[in-house]
Write a sequence for this structure.
């Protein structure tokens, strides 16, 4: 009898984890980004006649992979420096995401000839960044702390906003009212509902965690918080990403201050570090396997245009928006801007949104293929060159400890 979960039989799952372990060892020794090695391994597995099925579905990404990845990143973001950077981050993930989506959508409509609806969907989904390999490089290379915070926090908030934008377009595609008033109401209720869902799950479970010092129970409760907040928000048609982000921030900044025991805190962090490693391993192998089946060669010109537009959109989302803060205490050095621009890789969320496109979008199949091409470019080209860029810009920390919100002189 074959036992399976979410399209995996356990033999396949074990084989993928074994491959992921070998890739981790090899990439560490070769000093290559882990994600690049995993995608390459996924491509090799798909090409070899081994009979290993590599399923990649939006449900698998959304409801199995995404909640723990968002939660793991959120519990490690300290609230005080995050709050200090919040005006800058909010500008990047609202104005920046809208500008990026508009640049891509307009280009795909006018240059390629896609419908406005299809181009709009692609613009929104490709605005979602996923700098997993960049963050891994940051940890290995010990980059300056403020840069690490900006990249990771902007990516998390960016994903939540992109998911909300995608939901609004899906409502329009389904024939919903598309007036400015209805869109504004849907936007507000989605965001507020997501934050409320995250708090509604995290707060009571954190209180319960405060009644025990058993680290295994504490780890279990954080698992319930990660998945429960996501599922509750999605049940009420709100953003699961924002809900889990909210829950993670609550656990990381308030749960660790008293509710979760000192011994439990390290157990929780170690657990989630392993979960993130496990899930990222599976995601990138699956992406590599799916890349093989994508007819990218048939749309190579469109894919090239989309890649250029996605880079242009990211540039518009980063440089002009950050210029607004050049005479404030939140001014960002040009070196940081370059890393935020080039480090805006696309990954799992962009592909999940592409695979979840409504069937009535005329360009659906082409959009999925082009999205995989753009993701492949970002992983292999941007991911491989990021360590070189960090060294070139001299962004490693010189000291063992550095203030989390280092003072940055205003730009001239």
């Amino acid at each position: 009898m074959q036992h399976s979960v979410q399209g995996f039989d356990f033999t396949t799952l074990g084989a993928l984890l074994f491959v992921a372990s070998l890739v981790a060892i090899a990439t560490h020794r070769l000093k290559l980004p882990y994600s690049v090695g995993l995608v390459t391994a996924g491509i090799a597995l798909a090409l070899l006649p081994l009979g290993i099925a590599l399923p990649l579905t939006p449900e698998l990404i959304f409801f199995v992979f995404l909640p723990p990845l968002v939660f793991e990143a959120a519990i490690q973001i300290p609230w005080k420096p995050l709050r200090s950077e919040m005006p800058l981050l909010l500008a990047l993930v609202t104005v920046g995401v809208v500008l990026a989506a508009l640049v891509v959508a307009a280009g795909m409509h006018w240059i390629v000839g896609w419908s406005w609806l299809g181009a709009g969907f692609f613009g929104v989904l490709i605005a979602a960044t996923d700098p997993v390999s960049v963050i891994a490089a940051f940890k290995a290379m010990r980059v300056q702390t403020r840069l690490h915070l900006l990249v990771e926090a902007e990516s998390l908030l960016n994903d939540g906003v992109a998911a909300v934008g995608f939901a609004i377009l899906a409502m329009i595609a389904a024939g919903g009212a598309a007036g400015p008033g209805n869109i504004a109401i849907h936007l507000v209720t989605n965001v507020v509902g997501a934050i409320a869902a995250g708090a509604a799950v995290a707060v009571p479970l954190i209180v319960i965690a405060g009644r025990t010092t058993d680290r295994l129970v504490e780890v279990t409760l954080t698992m319930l918080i990660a998945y429960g907040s996501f599922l509750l928000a999605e049940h009420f048609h709100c953003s699961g990403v924002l809900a889990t982000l909210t829950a993670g921030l609550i656990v990381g900044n308030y749960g660790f201050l008293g509710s979760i025991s000192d011994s439990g805190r390290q157990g929780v962090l170690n657990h989630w570090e392993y979960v993130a490693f496990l899930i990222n391993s599976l995601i990138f192998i699956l992406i590599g396997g799916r890349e093989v089946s994508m007819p990218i060669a048939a749309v190579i010109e469109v894919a090239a245009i989309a890649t250029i537009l996605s880079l242009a959109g990211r540039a518009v989302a980063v440089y002009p928006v950050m210029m607004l803060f050049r005479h404030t205490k939140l001014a960002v050095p040009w070196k940081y801007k370059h890393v935020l621009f080039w480090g805006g890789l696309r990954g799992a969320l962009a592909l999940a949104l592409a695979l979840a496109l409504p069937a009535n979008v005329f360009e659906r199949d082409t959009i999925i293929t082009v999205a995989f091409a753009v993701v492949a470019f970002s992983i292999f080209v941007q991911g491989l060159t990021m360590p070189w860029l960090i060294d070139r810009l001299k962004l490693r920390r010189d000291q063992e400890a550095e203030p989390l919100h280092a003072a940055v002189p205003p730009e001239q």
